[in-house]
Structure formats: C-alpha cells, structure tokens
Amino acid sequence: MLSFTKQIRGFKKMSSHVHIPETILASIWKERKFNKEVFTESGEKIEILETGDENKENGGPDFLNARVKIGNLTYVGDVEIDNTHSDWKSHGHNINKRFNKVILHAIVNNESNQNYVYTQDGRKINTICFAQFIDEAVIDSIRKSMVIEDEKKTNKVHCYKVSGFADEQTKIDFLGELGVERFKKKCEKMITRLRELVFIDSLKLKEPVTHYSFPKEIYNEKLSAENLNDKYIWEQLFYESIFEALGYSQNRQIMVKLTQAVPISFIERLDIPDNEMVDTLEALYFSVSGLIPDTAGLKDENTIAYVRKISEHWVTIQDNYKGAKFDSTDWHFFKLRPQNFPTLRIAAGARLAKKILREDLIPSIMKKFYEIHNYTVLKNALRTLLIIKGEGYWKKHFMFDKSASEDTHYFLGNTRADEIFINVILPFVYIYFDLFNKKKFADKTLAVYSSVVTETENSLVNEVSEALHIESSIKKSVIYQGMIELFRNYCSRERCEECKIGDKVFNNPKDAN
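Above: the chain's sequence. Below: its structure in token form.
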C-alpha cells in the first residue's frame, strides 16, 4: 500500500483505488489546509472566501453556500468533494438536481485528466485537485486521522479486545437467539403491512393508494383465512417486499413507494400482452419514478431509441394511471456501485413483477416448500427462481445516456438472490403457513432459516465476526443475521450490560472459561 505521504504528494500518479476517508477530505477543505496559492485544473487561481456549511445529510453536496473567487469572478454555491474525478459521474451527481448549485468539484486524484464536470442542467464546473496544495505540516496529522478512522472501523464491537474471555458456544448461542429475533421482527413487519392491505382491500378502491391514514384498531384485529383469501393481498405484500430489498438502504423507501403507487392489481387490470410486459412495466416504473430524461438533451442513440420506445408504451397507459409521481431527486445514486443504481434495480423489479403476475412465482415458491425436503436443495431451487439475467437496454447501460464499461450479465445474481431468499421469501412463507395453521411447514421454514448457509457479503458482519473471533460460523444464515442484530441493537447503542457476550467478558472474565 502507498504511504500516506506518497498518496498526497503523488496525486497525479495516484491509483484511483487509493481511498482517503471523506471526513478527512472535508476537514482539509473546511480548515483550508493549503500551503500555497490554489489553482483549478484549468490553471485559474482560486481564492476561498467562505468554505460553506458542511452538509450532514445524504445525497447532497458536501458543503453548502460556499463563496469562492475563480479568476476575476466570485461564485456563491455548493462544493462537492470526492476522491477521484470520475466519482462525479459514478456517484450520479451529473444527473442529480441537488448538485445543480455546485460551483467547485474538489478532488484528490484526477485520473480522468479532465478540467471540468457538468451538472444535470448542463452547467460546466471547475475542478480543483487539491492534494498538491496541502500544507506539509498537516500531512502527519492527517495520517494520524486516517489511523483513527481505521481504528473506528475495527472497534464497532466494544469488547473486541476482550471478546476472547467469552467461550465460543456462548457467542454462537446468543447470536442464534438474536438471529431468530431478527427473523421474527421481519415477520411482524410483514404482518403489520398485511393488516393494512386487508383494510385497503375492504375499501374496494380501484385507484392506487400511496398515502392513507390507517385506523389504529386494524392492528389489533385478528386476521382470518376469510379475509386473507384474496391473492392480490399476498402478491402486493410480496411485490413490495421484493422491491424494498432491491432498493438497498439508500433507495429502500422510495422503491416501496413506487410499488404502492403502482400496485400489482393496477398492473393486472391493464391486461398487457406477455410479450410486451417488461417494456410496459419499465415504461410505467420509469415514468412514475421521474427518472426518464428529456430526449432533447440525450446524445447516445441507443438511449434515444429506448426512451422513445418506453414513452410510446407510457402513452397507451397513462390515462389509466391516477397515482403519485416522483422526481429524479427522490432517488439516490450517491456512494453506490453502478450495479446497484436504482435504474438497474427497477429493471430487475420489472422482470420480477412479470414473474409474479404471469409466471406464478408465489405458487412456485410454495410448491417447492411442499415438495423439497433437503434444505440446501430447497434454498438453491428458490434462489434460482429469483435470478434475473441482464438483457435489453439496461444490459449495456447503468443510467440513462451512460453506457456501461462492461455488460451487466445479471440484474439480480446469486448474492442478491440469496439475500432476498433470507430476508423476504422465508419470512413471507412463514407468516403464510402460520396464518393458515400449517404448523408443519411453518416449523420447516424456521428450520431452513436456522440451518442453511448464506453466500452474501457484508462488511459489517465481517468486522463483527472478526472482533468476536468466530469467522468460521459467519456463513450460517441465523448467525449472520444475529451479528447484524447484535451490532444494531446492542453494540451501536452501547447496551453491553444487556448483551450476554458483553456480560460475560466485562463482568465475569475470570469465569468465562
């Protein structure tokens, strides 16, 4: 690895893979840690009159209301700080209206050798590669700050230095309990939404419902087989849960809002031919999402053709749509890998919605639970139902008018399908079996959850397992989920006294073995 001094001084040759924490970059800008005059990449002198107010919210520029003089002109607006020049596009700033007030793009590494970036409305923004201007006197303190940042990453579990005082079985047992607890929380969340869907169904509304105040009493009413027999209730619950999982943490809420604005029953009423289903769904989702750009500003011929095609499909159905519409600023591209951009996730969602409506996805899932007895074989069979291969426009693009450097072979591959299997399919089928008094299969579902291994990767889980010295058990789904529950509800809240592992290592270290 490059030394920090070489990282700073070698900014022109620096590998784009070298990443300096943005908290440190923000500190450099905020405290003006420069040892000489500062110039843009195009050679214009900069005077930093006001660094601006640091933005603590996700999805917007790093500093707001800054004031800088570039050449003879004074600019007032926002400043975005990135590690590399290409981060501007890879983070989606170029299509995000929230970045239209940016007046300066500050970076560490100009690997693209470009002097400017462009906002969503087409305005040209100067770039400053400020690594070359950093004061030599602060390099050492910055290095120490990086060490502290790294220490924070490995200290998420407060007992990491003494976790060895607890025996492995104590850790595994407690994580197993937490894993089951997390599973039950997911089930309870689904049941809560099921109650709301039953209530909506009782109103017999024909238009999409995106905002509704639910009476408190519905959450206490007993769910019966009679009011759970409508297949659209279960399809809508599954549909919402799938899209929520596709949204990751950044776009989880807006993906759910999209499914509630475009409910599965509305799609079914459109009576779309099978061979036009995916195109029509993409037209519907991208039109409602607000992500379709104006064709007047497009340059890529494939994008122009695609936008025209889905716009034609939208024209045929827009008079039937009475639901909400969203804006492109409601979607987050910031700090996401292109494969996880909401555009690709919506493309995957369109194909899963078709599977729900036209390919009997839910009955197929249930059938496999009834017929397959080997838990690993069952998991693999169910995961296969979720995998979506890349195709069409989105196979070669990760956002509108932006070609991908390589084809997207899978919109939804093994890893994400594995996560959906654990976080959506298992809770869904569990509450279905439980509510219809199929105890044998409800128990089977919980047994599958408790025994199968997962192929997903999570940096938080990796750190927790390393801190607890139980790397060998990380792949078991119930333990994997237990680690997430441990961190979110114990470690991050400093509830060490209530944690069985914390109690063992902090209160009874001598008795731990």
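The longest strand covers residues 73-84.
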